[in-house]
# Entry
Amino acid sequence: MAENRIYIFDTTLRDGEQVPGCKLNTEQKIEIAHQLEALGVDIIEAGFPISSPGDFKSVEAISRAVKNATVCGLSRAVSKDIETAAAALKYAIRPRIHTGIGTSEMHIKFKLKSTQEAILERSVAAVKLAKSFVEDVEFYAEDAGRTDNEYLARVLEAVIKAGATVLNIPDTTGYCLPEEYGAKIRYLKENVKGIHKAILSTHCHNDLGLATANSIAGIQNGARQIECTINGIGERAGNTSLEEVVMIMRQHPDLAFETGIKTPMIYQTSRLVSERMGMPVQPNKAIVGANAFAHSSGIHQDGVIKKRETYEIINPLDVGVDHSKIVLTARSGRAAVAYRAKNIGYNLTKDQLDKVYAQFLEVADSKKEVDDSDLNHIMAQQKIGVLST
Ligand code: KIV
Ligand code: ZN
# Structure
């Protein structure tokens, strides 16, 4: 695989599904897994099999259904978890067990009530046990973002020796700054013996709105897998959003990264996940929000009508959105009104446009958005017929 190929690990069905009120049934999870596979995701984290019989059943069903992508199951560094994950992944063509434990002082002292040495031993034992079931074992160092780099490097060195193939460096609490997170990945790349045998992975949460920036800093410093979710859903403020990192790499060829994602399927995937999970997407969400390709101010509309690229850096078709939207509001100018009128069949002369625009402003002041039926009504009142010149 090319040196600059970035693996996309989607955790919509695991970290994404942990969101309150976001329960999916097995059929819905299979439907989403099929969509993720068609989208070109490399690894699908299907669930956390020990967490409930329902989750076990879903991971097992997804393992049977998915043919090309790797199917991954989460576990803690606990034997029963690992054995259960292995059982749920039994039918997967490409199974991966994702196991790990907290490595920060905060987690070791207060959550695990343990010591650094004991955690290192548990990490190695967990990876060895997972390795007895599957070849592909990913280790996560929970709260790696706040873990001392020197200790983190020691743990990673030990789990590589035990057989880990992928090393996940989660910024579990979304605390890191991009430079800090990037430097952590660089440190690990340069200081962990045997690192060439494993892939470093980013897993960034969005508590400070930095998940996407941190993931990109991670790959710029040597990580080759990004863990992310559709629409950025996930614990608390969410995870890195798949559509954002993928489109950053696509729109910046200067970064020279590649993914296997078929970007024109992004929008339909976002809609499917939002509808099945009952989680609306905020209108101003990058790439997939309802307003991501909508223009409402007169200055912007004038530019976009003359040349789309004046105010759009992404062609909407590249993410599966049909066209940019010119939204008519009281901030719209004549160019936008003429453009929208033309779209519904009215070719206005300058005089006609003056009259229509004056009436449009009255309507726009009383309504948030002027739609095609309002425009038709204005044309009727101004006695302008379709295809008039
Ligand atoms: O955020 C996190 O640390 C996680 C791990 C379980 C991978 O989701
Ligand atoms: Zn997470």
